[in-house]
Amino acid sequence: MTRIVFALVPGVHLLDLAGPAQVFSTAAGLGHPYELCHVSERADVPSAQGLTLRASTHWPALGAGDIVVVPGWRRAPGHPPAPVVAPATARRIAAHHAAGGLVASVCAGAFALGQAGLLDGRRCTTHHELQDDLARHHRSATVVRDVLYVTDDRVVTSAGIASGIDLALHLVAARHGPATAARTARAMVVYARRNGDAPQAGAMLRHRAHLSDAVHRAQDLIDARYTSPLRLTDLAAAAGVSERTLTRRFTAATGLTPLRYQQELRLEHAERLIGQGTTVEAAAHAVGFTDARMLRRLRLRSRIPAAPTAAPAATADSVVLAAST
User: Fold this and answer.
1) Which end of the chain is more exposed for a tag (fewer CB within 10 A), N or C?
2) Which residues form the HTH araC/xylS-type domain (predicted)?
3) CB atoms within 10 A of CB 306
4) How is residue 246 annotated by DSSP?
């Protein structure tokens, strides 16, 4: 069981809290054990939107695998840099990180991490209206502007309000894989997005920004078995539609046929292996190609800007995906 501890400050923004909380709660509903806890210096916590929240005044025991999240609160730009949390709370946040745990913030929550000494020498971000203040009050930090979130040595800071959802989806992807993050995002009816300053999102996330359940079901199967030949008939059965309908909807939703999507997954995984020192031949076999020729062709094609082409025919993947390996 992983504990997600939300440290609440008076004036907390509801979406700063509710967005990440919903992500972890949804992931728990998909079978990943998360326990959400809410702590504060006082039991009653007024929110910026007028709703009073109830929190525990006692912190639970935390392990290195647990996460502490500080949601943002209403803070006017230029506000004096007075301590934003009690010294005891700041010490708890710092101690959790020192023990190997991960700490995160949404919006003005970055100031609490700064008070805990966790921004010194690290990259971070916050809401665009507060970035100048954060840089001024924490001069040893590097404030990254115009991004959704920044990670630096188990310190994850995000921009304002809804970006807390992106931060939490990133943490779910890091722990359980991008397919789980994509399913979590789909259940929440949000795009599975990544920070523009981070490495590019994988194909599992990049092609999930649609609302076609049939295509998502087919992608789930390809994601789980991308190294194996997959019959289009099996994909269509999993999606609950005909082969022709699946290919048409898949192409419209992702810009790829099912075969191209599977090849893109294989290529990404192979590139990761090659970057770690694996030979092209070994990487090709590891991701499901029978030899390295197809992998070499895909690598070459990925480096050449593609000319506009007509949409593929509805029967382009007529028998078996990855048959030409």
Assistant:
1) N
2) 216-297
3) 7
4) H
